Amino acid sequence: MENLLSEGLELMVFGMGFVFVFLTLLIFTTAGMSKVVSKYFPEAPAKPKAKKAAPAAATASNDELIAVMTAAVHKYRS
């Protein structure tokens, strides 16, 4: 019984150690790849976009859309 317990603990430690080593290696590999990619392909600075005012037609379209959706929900529930 004690031999079986020690083998189980040994297998658990080996499995958890393998997962820990793999995940640590994965973290360092991902960080390294990120540095390499950012070095050779730097991001262009983002340009601020000008905000446009919503036209009146869009508001009417939104009101129509809300009415259609309300009718569909009412039809579905009845």
Give a written overview of the molecule.
Its EC number is 7.2.4.2. This is Probable oxaloacetate decarboxylase gamma chain. Helix content is 78%, strand content 0%. The protein has one domain (2-44, 52-77). The chain has 78 residues and is mostly helical. It has helices at residues 2-40, 56-77.
Question: What's the layout of helices and strands?
Answer:
Elements: H1 2-40, H2 56-77
Keywords:
78 residues, mainly alpha, 0% strand, membrane, transmembrane helix, sodium, ion transport, sodium transport
Short description:
By secondary structure, this protein is mainly alpha-helical. Helix content is 78%, strand content 0%.
The geometry reads as flat
The residue-averaged pLDDT reads 87
What is the SS-derived class? mainly alpha
Report the sheet-strand fraction: under 5%
Distance N to C terminus: 66 Å
Unreliable stretches (pLDDT < 50, length at least 5) are none
Give the number of helices.
2
Q: How many separate domains make up the residues?
A: 1
Largest sheet: none
Order of helices and strands: HH
Kindly report the oligomeric state of this protein: single chain
Helix content: over 70%
Got a strand count? Answer: 0
* Rg over CA atoms: 30 Å
Subcellular location: Cell membrane
Function: Catalyzes the decarboxylation of oxaloacetate coupled to Na(+) translocation.
Membrane topology: Single-pass membrane protein
Organism: Neptuniibacter pectenicola
